[in-house]
Amino acid sequence: MKRLFTNATFVTMVDEFDTADALLVDDEGRIAFVGPLEEARKRAEGAEEVDLGGAAVLPGLIDPHSHFTGSLQYLLFADLSACTSFAEITETLKEFAAKRHIGPDGVIMGNGYDQNNLIEQRHPDKSVLNAVSEDIPVLITHVSNHMGVANDCLLKMAGITPATPDPEGGRYGRMDGTGDLDGYAEEPAAMNPFYAITTPRLGLDFNAMIGDMQRIYLEHGVTTCQDGATAPDMAAVMVGLAKAGLLQMDIVAYPMWGTDVMATLADNAEFDSQRYTGHFRFGGLKMFLDGSPQGLTAWMTEPYVEGPDGEKDWVAYSTMTDEDATAFAKIAIDSNHQLLCHCNGDAAADQLLRVYEAARDASDNPDKMGLRPVMIHAQTARADQYEKMAAIGMIPSIFSSHIWYWGDAHLRNLGPVRGGRVSACGDAARSGIPFTLHTDTPVLRPNLLEAAWCAVNRITKAGVQLDEDQKVTPYEAMRAITFNGAYQYGEEADKGTLEAGKLADLVVLDRNPLAVDPREIRDIQVLATIKEGETLYERDDQ
Q1: Tell me: the pLDDT tens digits for 33-67?
Q2: What are 137's strand-pairing partners?
Q3: Would you say which domain of life the source belongs to (predicted)?
Q4: 34 by DSSP, 3-state: which?
Q5: Could you name the CATH architecture of 72-201?
Q6: Cα-flanking dihedrals φ and ψ of residue 437, to 5°?
Q7: Dihedral sign computed on CA atoms, order 255, 256, 262, 264
Q8: Rounded to a whole number, what is the largest CA-CA distance in the chain?
Q9: Which of 147, 313, 391, 469 stands the most exposed, by the fewest C-beta atoms within 10 Å?
Q10: Right CATH number for 1-60+497-542 from 1.10.10.10, 3.40.30.10, 2.30.40.10, 3.40.50.2300?
Q11: DSSP summary character for residue 47
Protein backbone atom coordinates (compact mmCIF):
# COMPACT_ATOMS: atom_id res chain seq x y z
CA MET A 1 0.00 0.00 0.00
CA LYS A 2 1.29 3.45 -0.89
CA ARG A 3 1.66 5.67 2.19
CA LEU A 4 2.53 9.35 2.43
CA PHE A 5 4.06 10.35 5.76
CA THR A 6 3.72 14.02 6.62
CA ASN A 7 3.95 16.57 9.47
CA ALA A 8 7.37 15.39 10.66
CA THR A 9 11.03 16.29 10.36
CA PHE A 10 12.56 13.59 8.17
CA VAL A 11 16.22 13.33 9.21
CA THR A 12 17.71 11.57 6.21
CA MET A 13 21.18 10.88 7.68
CA VAL A 14 22.64 11.61 4.24
CA ASP A 15 24.56 14.36 5.98
CA GLU A 16 24.35 16.14 9.31
CA PHE A 17 21.91 18.83 8.20
CA ASP A 18 19.75 17.20 5.50
CA THR A 19 16.04 17.08 6.37
CA ALA A 20 12.79 16.81 4.43
CA ASP A 21 9.09 17.56 4.91
CA ALA A 22 7.48 14.38 3.59
CA LEU A 23 8.23 10.79 2.64
CA LEU A 24 6.30 8.66 0.14
CA VAL A 25 6.36 4.85 0.25
CA ASP A 26 5.51 2.84 -2.86
CA ASP A 27 3.56 -0.40 -3.17
CA GLU A 28 6.77 -2.44 -2.76
CA GLY A 29 7.67 -0.97 0.62
CA ARG A 30 10.43 1.27 -0.73
CA ILE A 31 10.90 5.01 -0.50
CA ALA A 32 9.48 6.57 -3.66
CA PHE A 33 10.23 10.17 -2.72
CA VAL A 34 11.59 12.18 0.18
CA GLY A 35 11.54 15.97 0.03
CA PRO A 36 9.12 18.94 -0.03
CA LEU A 37 5.51 18.24 0.96
CA GLU A 38 4.04 19.88 -2.13
CA GLU A 39 6.05 17.70 -4.48
CA ALA A 40 5.31 14.59 -2.42
CA ARG A 41 1.56 15.19 -2.65
CA LYS A 42 1.82 15.55 -6.43
CA ARG A 43 3.34 12.06 -6.55
CA ALA A 44 1.04 10.52 -3.94
CA GLU A 45 -2.15 9.78 -5.88
CA GLY A 46 -3.99 6.94 -4.17
CA ALA A 47 -1.69 6.93 -1.15
CA GLU A 48 -2.84 6.80 2.47
CA GLU A 49 -1.65 9.99 4.17
CA VAL A 50 -0.25 9.53 7.66
CA ASP A 51 0.10 12.62 9.87
CA LEU A 52 2.97 12.05 12.31
CA GLY A 53 2.10 14.94 14.59
CA GLY A 54 5.37 16.83 14.43
CA ALA A 55 7.61 13.86 15.23
CA ALA A 56 11.14 13.22 13.95
CA VAL A 57 11.70 10.33 11.52
CA LEU A 58 15.05 8.63 10.99
CA PRO A 59 16.09 5.47 9.15
CA GLY A 60 15.18 2.35 11.09
CA LEU A 61 17.88 1.61 13.66
CA ILE A 62 20.26 -1.21 12.79
CA ASP A 63 21.57 -3.46 15.53
CA PRO A 64 25.10 -4.48 14.51
CA HIS A 65 25.56 -7.08 17.24
CA SER A 66 23.23 -8.91 19.59
CA HIS A 67 21.90 -12.39 20.19
CA PHE A 68 18.31 -12.38 18.99
CA THR A 69 17.52 -15.90 20.17
CA GLY A 70 18.96 -14.96 23.57
CA SER A 71 16.19 -12.40 24.01
CA LEU A 72 14.01 -15.26 25.23
CA GLN A 73 15.82 -14.71 28.54
CA TYR A 74 13.58 -11.70 29.08
CA LEU A 75 10.58 -13.98 28.78
CA LEU A 76 11.71 -17.10 30.65
CA PHE A 77 14.41 -16.15 33.20
CA ALA A 78 14.27 -14.42 36.54
CA ASP A 79 15.67 -10.90 36.29
CA LEU A 80 18.56 -10.55 38.76
CA SER A 81 19.81 -7.18 37.53
CA ALA A 82 18.43 -5.28 40.53
CA CYS A 83 19.82 -7.69 43.13
CA THR A 84 22.37 -6.19 45.51
CA SER A 85 23.18 -9.24 47.66
CA PHE A 86 23.29 -13.03 47.65
CA ALA A 87 20.17 -13.06 49.82
CA GLU A 88 18.26 -11.02 47.24
CA ILE A 89 19.34 -13.43 44.49
CA THR A 90 18.05 -16.39 46.51
CA GLU A 91 14.75 -14.67 47.30
CA THR A 92 14.20 -13.48 43.71
CA LEU A 93 14.74 -17.00 42.38
CA LYS A 94 12.43 -18.53 44.98
CA GLU A 95 9.65 -16.09 44.12
CA PHE A 96 10.17 -16.69 40.41
CA ALA A 97 9.99 -20.48 40.82
CA ALA A 98 6.86 -20.26 42.97
CA LYS A 99 5.10 -17.91 40.55
CA ARG A 100 5.96 -20.15 37.58
CA HIS A 101 5.12 -23.37 39.50
CA ILE A 102 8.46 -24.87 38.49
CA GLY A 103 8.74 -28.51 39.58
CA PRO A 104 11.41 -31.23 39.51
CA ASP A 105 11.02 -31.69 35.74
CA GLY A 106 11.72 -28.02 35.11
CA VAL A 107 14.60 -25.64 35.61
CA ILE A 108 15.05 -22.37 37.50
CA MET A 109 17.01 -19.84 35.45
CA GLY A 110 18.13 -16.34 36.35
CA ASN A 111 20.07 -13.78 34.37
CA GLY A 112 21.73 -10.42 34.90
CA TYR A 113 23.50 -10.60 38.25
CA ASP A 114 26.62 -8.43 38.44
CA GLN A 115 29.16 -9.03 41.18
CA ASN A 116 30.17 -5.38 40.89
CA ASN A 117 26.72 -4.43 42.25
CA LEU A 118 26.60 -6.97 45.10
CA ILE A 119 27.57 -6.07 48.64
CA GLU A 120 29.68 -9.24 48.72
CA GLN A 121 31.71 -7.92 45.75
CA ARG A 122 32.19 -11.42 44.35
CA HIS A 123 30.33 -14.01 42.32
CA PRO A 124 27.73 -16.12 44.15
CA ASP A 125 28.55 -19.78 44.78
CA LYS A 126 26.42 -22.91 44.68
CA SER A 127 25.29 -22.49 48.31
CA VAL A 128 23.29 -19.42 47.24
CA LEU A 129 21.44 -21.57 44.68
CA ASN A 130 21.18 -24.70 46.83
CA ALA A 131 19.10 -22.50 49.16
CA VAL A 132 16.66 -22.05 46.25
CA SER A 133 16.31 -25.77 45.52
CA GLU A 134 18.19 -28.99 46.08
CA ASP A 135 15.91 -30.99 43.77
CA ILE A 136 15.52 -28.69 40.73
CA PRO A 137 18.50 -27.61 38.62
CA VAL A 138 19.26 -23.91 39.10
CA LEU A 139 21.50 -21.85 36.83
CA ILE A 140 22.16 -18.13 36.96
CA THR A 141 24.18 -16.25 34.38
CA HIS A 142 26.25 -13.11 34.78
CA VAL A 143 25.12 -9.93 33.05
CA SER A 144 27.91 -10.47 30.49
CA ASN A 145 26.66 -14.01 29.73
CA HIS A 146 30.30 -15.11 29.95
CA MET A 147 30.01 -16.79 33.32
CA GLY A 148 27.45 -18.31 35.63
CA VAL A 149 26.75 -20.41 38.70
CA ALA A 150 25.03 -23.80 39.07
CA ASN A 151 23.59 -25.53 42.12
CA ASP A 152 24.66 -29.02 43.21
CA CYS A 153 21.67 -30.59 41.45
CA LEU A 154 22.73 -29.16 38.09
CA LEU A 155 26.41 -29.97 38.63
CA LYS A 156 25.46 -33.60 39.20
CA MET A 157 23.10 -33.75 36.21
CA ALA A 158 25.79 -32.24 33.96
CA GLY A 159 28.40 -34.69 35.19
CA ILE A 160 30.72 -31.95 36.40
CA THR A 161 32.78 -33.24 39.36
CA PRO A 162 35.92 -32.10 41.20
CA ALA A 163 37.85 -34.40 38.85
CA THR A 164 36.53 -32.59 35.75
CA PRO A 165 39.40 -30.65 34.16
CA ASP A 166 38.98 -27.05 33.09
CA PRO A 167 38.16 -26.97 29.38
CA GLU A 168 40.37 -25.05 26.96
CA GLY A 169 39.26 -21.42 27.09
CA GLY A 170 37.17 -21.87 30.25
CA ARG A 171 37.36 -22.52 33.98
CA TYR A 172 35.39 -24.08 36.85
CA GLY A 173 35.55 -22.40 40.25
CA ARG A 174 36.92 -24.43 43.14
CA MET A 175 36.88 -23.93 46.90
CA ASP A 176 40.11 -22.94 48.55
CA GLY A 177 41.90 -25.82 50.23
CA THR A 178 39.47 -28.56 49.19
CA GLY A 179 39.36 -28.51 45.39
CA ASP A 180 35.60 -29.05 45.55
CA LEU A 181 33.51 -27.23 42.95
CA ASP A 182 31.89 -23.99 44.09
CA GLY A 183 29.40 -23.94 41.19
CA TYR A 184 31.05 -21.11 39.23
CA ALA A 185 31.74 -21.59 35.51
CA GLU A 186 33.64 -19.20 33.28
CA GLU A 187 33.22 -18.80 29.51
CA PRO A 188 31.05 -20.89 27.14
CA ALA A 189 33.42 -23.86 27.09
CA ALA A 190 32.70 -24.39 30.80
CA MET A 191 29.03 -23.39 30.71
CA ASN A 192 27.88 -25.41 27.71
CA PRO A 193 27.46 -28.67 29.69
CA PHE A 194 24.96 -26.82 31.90
CA TYR A 195 23.02 -25.49 28.92
CA ALA A 196 22.80 -29.02 27.54
CA ILE A 197 20.72 -29.88 30.63
CA THR A 198 18.76 -26.67 31.13
CA THR A 199 17.71 -25.77 27.58
CA PRO A 200 15.56 -28.89 26.92
CA ARG A 201 13.78 -28.29 30.25
CA LEU A 202 12.63 -24.80 29.26
CA GLY A 203 9.93 -26.18 26.95
CA LEU A 204 10.72 -23.61 24.27
CA ASP A 205 7.92 -22.76 21.85
CA PHE A 206 9.44 -20.24 19.48
CA ASN A 207 6.32 -19.99 17.36
CA ALA A 208 4.46 -18.72 20.42
CA MET A 209 7.29 -16.49 21.67
CA ILE A 210 8.54 -14.97 18.43
CA GLY A 211 6.16 -12.00 18.51
CA ASP A 212 7.30 -10.98 22.00
CA MET A 213 10.96 -11.54 21.08
CA GLN A 214 10.67 -9.22 18.10
CA ARG A 215 8.78 -6.61 20.11
CA ILE A 216 11.82 -6.29 22.39
CA TYR A 217 13.67 -4.86 19.37
CA LEU A 218 10.81 -3.09 17.63
CA GLU A 219 9.90 -1.02 20.68
CA HIS A 220 13.44 0.37 20.52
CA GLY A 221 13.14 1.35 16.87
CA VAL A 222 15.25 -1.53 15.53
CA THR A 223 14.31 -2.86 12.08
CA THR A 224 17.37 -5.06 11.44
CA CYS A 225 19.02 -7.16 14.14
CA GLN A 226 21.54 -9.94 14.60
CA ASP A 227 21.76 -13.42 16.06
CA GLY A 228 25.45 -13.23 16.78
CA ALA A 229 26.42 -16.80 17.77
CA THR A 230 23.95 -19.17 16.15
CA ALA A 231 24.09 -22.83 17.18
CA PRO A 232 22.88 -25.45 14.66
CA ASP A 233 19.61 -26.07 16.51
CA MET A 234 18.87 -22.34 16.66
CA ALA A 235 19.68 -22.01 12.96
CA ALA A 236 17.00 -24.62 12.27
CA VAL A 237 14.56 -22.73 14.51
CA MET A 238 15.17 -19.43 12.71
CA VAL A 239 14.84 -21.04 9.28
CA GLY A 240 11.55 -22.59 10.39
CA LEU A 241 10.23 -19.26 11.61
CA ALA A 242 11.23 -17.59 8.34
CA LYS A 243 9.55 -20.28 6.26
CA ALA A 244 6.41 -19.96 8.38
CA GLY A 245 6.28 -16.21 7.68
CA LEU A 246 6.57 -15.32 11.38
CA LEU A 247 9.48 -12.88 11.09
CA GLN A 248 8.61 -9.22 10.64
CA MET A 249 12.05 -7.61 11.01
CA ASP A 250 15.26 -8.55 9.23
CA ILE A 251 17.51 -10.92 11.19
CA VAL A 252 21.10 -11.77 10.21
CA ALA A 253 22.63 -14.90 11.78
CA TYR A 254 26.25 -15.95 12.28
CA PRO A 255 26.97 -19.65 12.99
CA MET A 256 29.40 -20.03 15.88
CA TRP A 257 32.89 -21.48 16.11
CA GLY A 258 32.91 -24.80 17.94
CA THR A 259 30.16 -26.24 15.73
CA ASP A 260 30.23 -27.47 12.12
CA VAL A 261 29.51 -24.04 10.71
CA MET A 262 29.82 -25.04 7.07
CA ALA A 263 27.34 -27.89 7.58
CA THR A 264 24.89 -25.40 9.11
CA LEU A 265 25.21 -23.18 6.04
CA ALA A 266 24.99 -26.13 3.62
CA ASP A 267 21.88 -27.48 5.34
CA ASN A 268 20.17 -24.10 4.87
CA ALA A 269 21.74 -23.02 1.57
CA GLU A 270 18.81 -20.87 0.42
CA PHE A 271 19.40 -18.58 3.42
CA ASP A 272 23.18 -18.31 2.88
CA SER A 273 22.85 -15.24 0.73
CA GLN A 274 22.99 -11.47 0.78
CA ARG A 275 19.24 -11.57 0.08
CA TYR A 276 16.69 -12.24 2.82
CA THR A 277 14.20 -15.07 2.62
CA GLY A 278 11.28 -14.48 4.97
CA HIS A 279 13.31 -11.69 6.66
CA PHE A 280 16.18 -14.06 7.54
CA ARG A 281 19.64 -14.77 6.18
CA PHE A 282 23.10 -15.89 7.25
CA GLY A 283 25.66 -13.10 7.22
CA GLY A 284 28.90 -14.96 7.96
CA LEU A 285 30.72 -16.77 10.77
CA LYS A 286 31.49 -15.91 14.41
CA MET A 287 34.33 -16.70 16.81
CA PHE A 288 35.46 -15.23 20.14
CA LEU A 289 38.91 -14.68 21.61
CA ASP A 290 38.36 -13.62 25.24
CA GLY A 291 35.82 -12.77 27.92
CA SER A 292 34.46 -9.66 29.62
CA PRO A 293 36.35 -6.77 31.27
CA GLN A 294 33.85 -6.35 34.11
CA GLY A 295 34.25 -10.07 34.79
CA LEU A 296 38.07 -9.78 34.68
CA THR A 297 38.28 -12.24 31.77
CA ALA A 298 39.03 -9.82 28.92
CA TRP A 299 42.56 -10.62 27.70
CA MET A 300 44.81 -7.62 28.31
CA THR A 301 48.38 -6.72 27.36
CA GLU A 302 48.88 -5.00 30.74
CA PRO A 303 47.61 -6.37 34.08
CA TYR A 304 44.38 -5.45 35.76
CA VAL A 305 44.74 -3.34 38.91
CA GLU A 306 43.82 -6.50 40.79
CA GLY A 307 42.84 -9.90 39.44
CA PRO A 308 40.55 -12.60 40.88
CA ASP A 309 41.24 -13.29 44.55
CA GLY A 310 43.66 -10.36 44.65
CA GLU A 311 45.98 -11.88 42.07
CA LYS A 312 48.66 -9.53 40.78
CA ASP A 313 49.87 -9.45 37.15
CA TRP A 314 46.51 -10.87 36.01
CA VAL A 315 45.91 -10.31 32.29
CA ALA A 316 43.32 -13.13 31.74
CA TYR A 317 43.67 -15.37 28.70
CA SER A 318 42.68 -16.15 25.13
CA THR A 319 39.92 -18.63 24.39
CA MET A 320 41.53 -19.79 21.11
CA THR A 321 45.07 -20.50 19.97
CA ASP A 322 46.50 -18.54 17.07
CA GLU A 323 46.49 -21.73 15.02
CA ASP A 324 42.79 -22.44 15.63
CA ALA A 325 41.76 -18.80 15.16
CA THR A 326 43.71 -18.48 11.90
CA ALA A 327 42.20 -21.71 10.59
CA PHE A 328 38.66 -20.57 11.39
CA ALA A 329 39.24 -17.12 9.90
CA LYS A 330 40.52 -18.79 6.73
CA ILE A 331 37.37 -20.93 6.52
CA ALA A 332 35.32 -17.71 6.57
CA ILE A 333 37.51 -15.97 4.00
CA ASP A 334 37.82 -18.96 1.67
CA SER A 335 34.03 -19.43 1.67
CA ASN A 336 33.56 -15.68 1.01
CA HIS A 337 31.91 -14.97 4.36
CA GLN A 338 32.24 -12.05 6.74
CA LEU A 339 33.92 -12.91 10.05
CA LEU A 340 32.68 -11.50 13.35
CA CYS A 341 34.99 -11.88 16.34
CA HIS A 342 34.42 -11.07 20.00
CA CYS A 343 37.39 -9.10 21.41
CA ASN A 344 37.17 -7.08 24.63
CA GLY A 345 40.81 -6.90 25.72
CA ASP A 346 43.55 -5.26 23.69
CA ALA A 347 45.56 -8.50 23.66
CA ALA A 348 42.59 -10.21 22.04
CA ALA A 349 42.39 -7.33 19.55
CA ASP A 350 46.06 -7.84 18.73
CA GLN A 351 45.38 -11.53 18.19
CA LEU A 352 42.45 -10.90 15.86
CA LEU A 353 44.40 -8.42 13.74
CA ARG A 354 47.30 -10.88 13.58
CA VAL A 355 45.34 -14.00 12.69
CA TYR A 356 42.95 -12.31 10.26
CA GLU A 357 45.80 -10.89 8.21
CA ALA A 358 47.55 -14.27 8.22
CA ALA A 359 44.37 -16.03 7.09
CA ARG A 360 43.66 -13.46 4.39
CA ASP A 361 47.23 -13.63 3.08
CA ALA A 362 46.92 -17.42 2.82
CA SER A 363 43.56 -17.35 1.03
CA ASP A 364 43.11 -17.57 -2.73
CA ASN A 365 39.65 -15.96 -2.62
CA PRO A 366 39.78 -13.13 -5.19
CA ASP A 367 37.15 -11.19 -3.23
CA LYS A 368 38.90 -11.49 0.13
CA MET A 369 39.61 -7.76 0.48
CA GLY A 370 35.93 -6.80 0.51
CA LEU A 371 34.54 -9.02 3.28
CA ARG A 372 34.32 -6.31 6.00
CA PRO A 373 35.40 -8.34 9.06
CA VAL A 374 34.09 -7.03 12.39
CA MET A 375 35.73 -6.72 15.79
CA ILE A 376 32.88 -7.09 18.26
CA HIS A 377 32.99 -5.00 21.48
CA ALA A 378 36.51 -3.49 21.11
CA GLN A 379 36.26 -2.26 24.70
CA THR A 380 39.95 -1.56 25.23
CA ALA A 381 41.17 -1.29 21.63
CA ARG A 382 44.12 1.09 21.38
CA ALA A 383 44.55 3.98 18.92
CA ASP A 384 47.17 2.02 16.95
CA GLN A 385 44.73 -0.87 16.66
CA TYR A 386 42.01 1.36 15.23
CA GLU A 387 44.51 2.61 12.67
CA LYS A 388 45.34 -0.99 11.79
CA MET A 389 41.64 -1.82 11.46
CA ALA A 390 41.20 1.08 9.06
CA ALA A 391 44.17 -0.12 6.99
CA ILE A 392 42.81 -3.66 6.56
CA GLY A 393 39.11 -2.79 6.22
CA MET A 394 37.99 -4.13 9.61
CA ILE A 395 34.94 -2.56 11.30
CA PRO A 396 34.81 -2.11 15.09
CA SER A 397 31.36 -2.60 16.60
CA ILE A 398 31.69 -0.87 19.96
CA PHE A 399 29.68 -1.76 23.07
CA SER A 400 29.44 1.89 24.13
CA SER A 401 26.80 1.24 26.80
CA HIS A 402 29.66 -0.07 28.95
CA ILE A 403 30.47 3.57 29.66
CA TRP A 404 27.33 4.04 31.75
CA TYR A 405 26.74 0.53 33.08
CA TRP A 406 30.32 -0.56 33.92
CA GLY A 407 32.48 2.53 33.51
CA ASP A 408 33.00 2.75 37.26
CA ALA A 409 34.04 -0.91 37.40
CA HIS A 410 36.46 -0.35 34.52
CA LEU A 411 38.06 2.55 36.40
CA ARG A 412 38.59 0.25 39.40
CA ASN A 413 39.77 -2.71 37.35
CA LEU A 414 41.88 -0.96 34.70
CA GLY A 415 42.88 2.31 36.35
CA PRO A 416 42.04 5.89 35.34
CA VAL A 417 43.81 5.94 31.97
CA ARG A 418 42.71 2.64 30.45
CA GLY A 419 39.40 2.67 32.30
CA GLY A 420 38.76 6.24 31.20
CA ARG A 421 39.10 5.47 27.49
CA VAL A 422 36.93 2.32 27.24
CA SER A 423 34.67 2.34 24.18
CA ALA A 424 37.06 4.69 22.42
CA CYS A 425 34.69 5.91 19.71
CA GLY A 426 36.72 9.09 19.27
CA ASP A 427 39.76 7.14 18.13
CA ALA A 428 37.57 5.08 15.81
CA ALA A 429 36.09 8.22 14.26
CA ARG A 430 39.48 9.85 13.81
CA SER A 431 40.72 6.73 12.02
CA GLY A 432 37.95 7.16 9.45
CA ILE A 433 36.38 3.80 10.28
CA PRO A 434 32.60 3.34 9.81
CA PHE A 435 32.27 2.11 13.40
CA THR A 436 28.97 0.85 14.80
CA LEU A 437 27.39 0.79 18.28
CA HIS A 438 25.59 -2.15 19.87
CA THR A 439 24.08 -3.34 23.16
CA ASP A 440 24.81 -7.10 22.98
CA THR A 441 21.22 -8.06 23.83
CA PRO A 442 20.36 -9.90 26.05
CA VAL A 443 23.23 -8.39 28.07
CA LEU A 444 21.24 -5.14 27.76
CA ARG A 445 17.97 -4.30 26.06
CA PRO A 446 18.51 -3.18 22.43
CA ASN A 447 18.35 0.52 23.36
CA LEU A 448 20.56 1.93 20.62
CA LEU A 449 19.57 5.50 21.47
CA GLU A 450 21.11 4.95 24.89
CA ALA A 451 24.20 3.49 23.23
CA ALA A 452 24.45 6.69 21.18
CA TRP A 453 23.96 8.81 24.32
CA CYS A 454 26.82 6.95 26.00
CA ALA A 455 29.16 7.51 23.04
CA VAL A 456 28.31 11.23 22.97
CA ASN A 457 28.42 12.00 26.71
CA ARG A 458 30.71 9.35 28.29
CA ILE A 459 29.24 9.57 31.79
CA THR A 460 29.28 6.65 34.26
CA LYS A 461 26.51 5.70 36.69
CA ALA A 462 28.46 7.40 39.46
CA GLY A 463 28.58 10.59 37.41
CA VAL A 464 32.25 10.32 36.47
CA GLN A 465 33.27 11.96 33.21
CA LEU A 466 35.38 9.51 31.19
CA ASP A 467 38.01 10.61 28.67
CA GLU A 468 36.36 13.43 26.73
CA ASP A 469 38.75 12.97 23.83
CA GLN A 470 36.81 9.77 23.05
CA LYS A 471 33.47 11.56 22.69
CA VAL A 472 31.77 11.67 19.29
CA THR A 473 29.13 14.06 17.96
CA PRO A 474 25.42 13.18 17.97
CA TYR A 475 25.56 12.85 14.19
CA GLU A 476 28.49 10.42 14.34
CA ALA A 477 26.71 8.37 17.02
CA MET A 478 23.42 8.24 15.09
CA ARG A 479 25.29 7.44 11.89
CA ALA A 480 26.81 4.47 13.75
CA ILE A 481 23.36 2.93 14.32
CA THR A 482 21.91 3.76 10.89
CA PHE A 483 24.14 4.01 7.81
CA ASN A 484 27.24 2.43 9.36
CA GLY A 485 25.14 -0.49 10.58
CA ALA A 486 23.85 -1.00 7.07
CA TYR A 487 27.40 -0.76 5.73
CA GLN A 488 28.61 -3.41 8.20
CA TYR A 489 26.02 -5.81 6.79
CA GLY A 490 26.76 -4.85 3.19
CA GLU A 491 23.25 -3.43 2.91
CA GLU A 492 23.98 0.26 2.45
CA ALA A 493 22.24 0.26 -0.95
CA ASP A 494 18.95 -0.63 0.77
CA LYS A 495 19.17 0.75 4.32
CA GLY A 496 20.73 3.35 6.56
CA THR A 497 19.52 6.63 5.01
CA LEU A 498 16.19 8.03 3.85
CA GLU A 499 16.65 8.13 0.08
CA ALA A 500 14.48 7.20 -2.89
CA GLY A 501 14.87 3.55 -3.80
CA LYS A 502 15.81 2.35 -0.33
CA LEU A 503 13.57 0.24 1.91
CA ALA A 504 11.05 2.28 3.88
CA ASP A 505 12.49 1.19 7.24
CA LEU A 506 11.74 4.06 9.62
CA VAL A 507 11.81 4.94 13.30
CA VAL A 508 9.46 7.68 14.53
CA LEU A 509 10.83 9.61 17.52
CA ASP A 510 9.31 12.27 19.74
CA ARG A 511 12.40 14.49 19.22
CA ASN A 512 15.24 14.86 16.76
CA PRO A 513 18.45 13.46 18.33
CA LEU A 514 20.52 15.87 16.23
CA ALA A 515 18.63 18.91 17.51
CA VAL A 516 18.22 18.28 21.26
CA ASP A 517 20.71 18.92 24.03
CA PRO A 518 23.08 15.91 23.68
CA ARG A 519 22.40 15.03 27.32
CA GLU A 520 18.75 14.34 26.38
CA ILE A 521 19.34 11.77 23.62
CA ARG A 522 18.74 8.87 26.00
CA ASP A 523 15.35 10.32 26.98
CA ILE A 524 14.00 10.39 23.41
CA GLN A 525 10.98 8.10 23.01
CA VAL A 526 10.30 5.71 20.14
CA LEU A 527 6.75 6.42 18.98
CA ALA A 528 6.60 3.91 16.13
CA THR A 529 8.72 1.48 14.14
CA ILE A 530 7.97 0.97 10.46
CA LYS A 531 9.38 -1.84 8.31
CA GLU A 532 9.05 -1.53 4.54
CA GLY A 533 6.23 0.96 4.99
CA GLU A 534 4.25 -1.16 7.46
CA THR A 535 3.87 -0.05 11.07
CA LEU A 536 5.03 -2.95 13.25
CA TYR A 537 5.15 -1.14 16.58
CA GLU A 538 3.31 1.88 17.94
CA ARG A 539 3.64 3.11 21.49
CA ASP A 540 0.52 2.29 23.49
CA ASP A 541 -0.12 5.85 24.66
CA GLN A 542 -0.02 7.23 21.12
Answers
A1: 999 999 999 999 999 999 999 999 999 999 999 99
A2: none
A3: Bacteria
A4: strand
A5: Roll (3.10)
A6: -125, 140
A7: negative
A8: 81
A9: 313
A10: 2.30.40.10
A11: P
